[in-house]
Amino acid sequence: MVIRDKCPRCQSSQHKKNGHIHNGKQNHQCHNCGRQFVDCFAQNLISADTRALIEHLLVERISLRGICRAVGVKLKWLLGFLVHCFEALPDHLHGQPVAYHGDVMMQRLAVEADDMSSFVHKKANKQWIWIAMDAKTRQVIAFHVGDRSRKSAKRLWAKIPQACRQHATFYTDQYVVYAGVIPAAQHRAISKLARKTNHIERFNNTLRQRVSRLVREALSFSKKLAHHIGAIKLFICHYNLTRAAA
Ligand SMILES: [Zn+2]
What we know:
Layout: E1 2-3, E2 15-20, E3 26-30, E4 36-38, E5 40-41, H1 48-57, H2 64-71, H3 75-87, E6 103-110, H4 113-120, E7 128-134, E8 140-146, H5 150-159, H6 162-167, E9 169-172, E10 187-189, H7 194-217, H8 225-245
Parallel strand pairs: 6-9, 9-10
Antiparallel strand pairs: 1-5, 2-3, 3-4, 6-7, 7-8
């Protein structure tokens, strides 16, 4: 139980009674800053063990509501925790050091309008996930979420580790925007990416299943693009760790 005799925002002890909140508890309002607060409440602390368990469950095929039921947390808390997890994800995406002289596959993955409608509101507003994958380790070394334009291609390029940008060979389809982004000497545009992109296709399938589920379930939550990108990043980090262990 937490007991307050001061305003939690400005620490003033000047406050008045201000009706009752939904559960019947006495509400107060600070004279100084106007903040409303109750003076007595149970603090709902989720243990470190439970948090660690939830972090594991978030990348498994279990619904967010399923996690709530199994672990005994509220959906609202879980969504807040999810954002906290997204923000803590490393920019290196848990990728192993890339063979800088190796091959990198680049591809744009269209995200189904249905999966994304929860946050873009318009079916026409398609988002594309740009992926750069190391051909040998099959880890994702960079990703970008955006439109299909050259600007997006540049954004992806900028996120690829510099040594890799200088030395690796990049395999793409023949989509025109890559020219002028990838130096011509390092660029191989191939008509049928077939064998080279099998790994990306597999990645794509899993991403669709896992991430779209994550997004679809938390409708109001995933209206924010940043959270959607967070869900994609969470998946990529997990994918890279799985690849590293394989
Ligand atoms: Zn105050």
